[in-house]
Amino acid sequence: MSVQTPVPVRHYLQFTDLSADEYAHVLTRAAEIKRKFKAYEKYHPLADRTLAMIFEKASTRTRVSFEAGMYQLGGSVVHLTTGDSQLGRSEPIEDSARVISRMTDLVMIRTFGQDKIERFASHSRVPVINGLTNEFHPCQILADIFTYIEHRGAIQGKTVAWVGDGNNMANTWLQAAELLGFTVHLSTPSGYEVDQAIAGLSGNANYKIFKDPQEACRGADLVTTDVWTSMGFEAENEARKKAFADWCVNEAMMQVAKPDALFMHCLPAHRGEEVSAEVIDGPQSVVWDEAENRLHVQKALMEFLLLGRVQS
Ligand code: CP
Ligand code: NVA
């Protein structure tokens, strides 16, 4: 019987949980794992491993990509929601973590406050992945960066324009900019700015703030946005609709970006609110590649967290 060397438990709770060098490895692995998938090449490195997926908020892409991805790697999944588990009946998150992590090999959580996923992780025997919190969405930014590299090459030194809410996506873009060496042009309505402390930034060297969203897009290599109202903030919907009216990525904004600029959106999108139909359905938009790449990068991430630096 051969015994595998155990890989130390590493969590992926925010973008800064991996180093730039580890991202280089994971992104290379994502390209190789995508190649295998497209060629119908069997690759089952996670046979007999189980992923628990805990959803306290709705999801399409995150659920499908983690669930399909784990099966494609030879493993299996358990799907839990607040409504159908004891999580919704006030079992302490620490107790849930102790139990779930004794029965599975990896946990993905989508929840509200970042503190909740951190408490879970600190009582978990197995790696925990952030599938979106109010503060961060690291798996999405990993997919976005992979998509940028596929279309345009290295992101280092490039400019990403963020038009919209200072939310989980904005915070994570800013963490990525610091870690990987690019700049974010940030334009948010007044009252919806990024909070540097919540975003966990070490400084302001990698972002510039613009009052005018069109100016934020000037010269950008990538223009990106997100819904005006994130999950958990629905009570603010009407106020946000008024405040965000000028923060709609339209053709005028894309015209002042670089001629080969890409448009991204994590989806789901609201055409006519944060983005015009012409832009999201237009030639610069790579949103479908971006969504598909969630599958490939998360397979590479799960491989890294469970097996370490696999070389093939
Ligand atoms: N982008 C994203 O995370 O999509 P879902 O909410 O559908 O998972
Ligand atoms: N900012 C959005 C992203 C959805 C994938 C939200 O948190 O609802």
Helix/strand layout:
Layout: H1 20-38, E1 50-55, H2 61-72, E2 76-81, H3 93-103, E3 106-110, H4 114-122, E4 128-130, H5 138-152, E5 159-163, H6 168-180, E6 183-187, H7 196-199, E7 207-209, H8 213-217, E8 222-225, H9 237-243, H10 251-256, E9 262-265, H11 277-280, H12 287-307
Parallel strand pairs: 1-2, 1-3, 3-4, 5-6, 5-8, 6-7, 8-9
Helix pairs in contact: 1-12, 2-12, 3-4, 5-12
Norvaline binds at residues 132, 167-169, 226-227, 230-231, 266.
Offer a quick outline of the entry:
The protein is α/β, with parallel strands linked by helices and about 300 residues long. It is about 40% helix and about 15% strand.
Description:
By secondary structure, this protein is an alpha/beta fold. The chain has 2 domains: 139 residues, Aspartate/ornithine carbamoyltransferase (Rossmann fold); 151 residues, Rossmann fold (3-Layer(aba) Sandwich). The protein is 40% helix and 13% strand. It has 12 helices and 9 strands. The strands form 2 sheets. It has a 5-stranded parallel β-sheet. A 4-stranded parallel β-sheet has the order 2-1-3-4, with helices on both faces. α1 crosses α12, α3 packs across α4 and α5 packs across α12. The protein is globular. The two termini are 23 Å apart. Norvaline binds next to α6.
